[in-house]
Write a structure and sequence with these properties.
about 250 residues, eight-stranded mixed sheet, globular
C-alpha cells in the first residue's frame, strides 16, 4: 500500500479517504496550513478524523494519521501527494509546493468510476465513484468530478473545476477555470461556462454563461455576480510564508 499525503481538508474528507483506499493506498499524513472555519460539533476536522480512525480500527488497521503544519513538512520516500480540498484555491498552493519541494500531485480516480481511456486527465484530478468521463474529454489540473456526475465526449474541463454529484455535462461543453456545477445540474451541448461561474443545483443550462455569474432555474437565468475566495501568499508576524484566504476585491452581491 502506498502512503498518501493530503494537503488541507474539506467536509468531504471521507470521499477522499475512501478513494485513497480503493486505489490501494492509505492516508499517512495530513498537512494543514489554513485554520478551519468554525463548524458544529460532529462536523469539525477532528470529528471527521476520529470517525476515519474508528473505521480503520474496524478494518483491523491500527494506524493513525499524522497531522502536522506546512512549516514542518518535508517529503518522504514513496509518498503520493493529493489535495484534500477543491477548487482554484488549490492552484497557488500547488505552485508553491512544486517550486519549494519539487512535488508532483497524483490523480485520484476511484476504481468504481468509468474514465474512458481516450479521455485526457491533468495533474491532481479527483474522480469519485460512479462518475463517467467520456472519450476525448479533457479534464484540467485539480478538477473534482463528484459521484454520479457525467462528462460528455469532447468536453474541455478547465483547472480547478468542481462538478457536483449527479450533474450531467453534455458533449463539447467548455467549462473555464474554476467553474462550479451544483448537484444535479444539467448543461446542454456546445455551451461555454465562463471562468468561475456558478451553476446552481438542479439548473438546466441552455445558453452560454458569462464569467463570475451565478445562474439558476429551468432554464437557467442569471441571478447575481459571483466572486470566490482565493489563497494569497503572505508573510506572518514571524516572517513565515502563509497562504491566507482572502475575499475578492469585488464582493458577492
Amino acid at each position: 500500500m502506498k502512503p498518501f499525503v493530503m494537503f488541507g481538508t474539506h467536509p468531504l474528507f471521507g470521499d477522499y479517504a475512501e478513494a485513497i483506499h480503493a486505489c490501494g493506498g492509505y492516508l499517512s499524513r495530513i498537512i494543514r496550513n489554513i485554520k478551519e472555519p468554525a463548524r458544529p460539533a460532529g462536523q469539525r476536522f477532528e470529528d471527521r478524523l476520529e470517525r476515519y480512525h474508528d473505521w480503520l480500527n474496524r478494518q483491523g488497521i491500527h494506524r493513525r494519521v499524522e497531522v502536522s503544519s506546512l512549516d514542518d513538512f518535508s517529503p518522504r520516500i514513496d509518498e503520493l501527494f493529493v489535495f484534500g480540498f477543491w477548487g482554484p484555491k488549490q492552484l497557488p498552493l500547488s505552485e508553491h509546493l512544486k517550486k519549494r519541494f519539487g512535488l508532483a500531485f497524483t490523480s485520484l480516480i476511484h476504481p468504481a468510476a468509468h474514465v474512458s481511456p481516450m479521455a485526457r486527465l491533468g495533474e491532481g484530478v479527483v474522480v469519485i465513484k460512479g462518475a463517467i468521463i467520456a472519450p476525448n474529454a479533457s479534464i484540467g489540473d485539480f478538477a473534482y468530478i463528484n459521484s454520479g456526475a457525467s462528462i460528455g465526449h469532447d468536453c474541455d474541463v478547465g483547472p480547478g473545476v468542481i462538478v457536483g454529484p449527479g450533474s450531467a455535462i453534455a458533449s463539447s461543453v467548455c467549462l473555464a477555470r474554476g467553474v462550479i456545477v451544483g448537484i444535479g445540474a444539467t448543461v446542454l451541448e456546445d455551451l461555454v461556462l465562463g471562468e468561475e461561474s456558478y451553476i446552481a443545483a438542479g439548473a438546466v443550462v441552455t445558453r452560454n454563461v458569462p464569467a463570475h455569474v451565478m445562474v439558476a432555474g429551468v432554464p437557467a437565468v442569471e441571478k447575481k455576480p459571483f466572486f470566490r475566495e482565493a489563497l494569497v501568499l503572505e508573510a506572518d508576524a514571524e516572517g513565515r510564508d502563509r497562504y491566507i484566504v482572502r475575499s475578492s476585491a469585488i464582493s458577492r452581491q
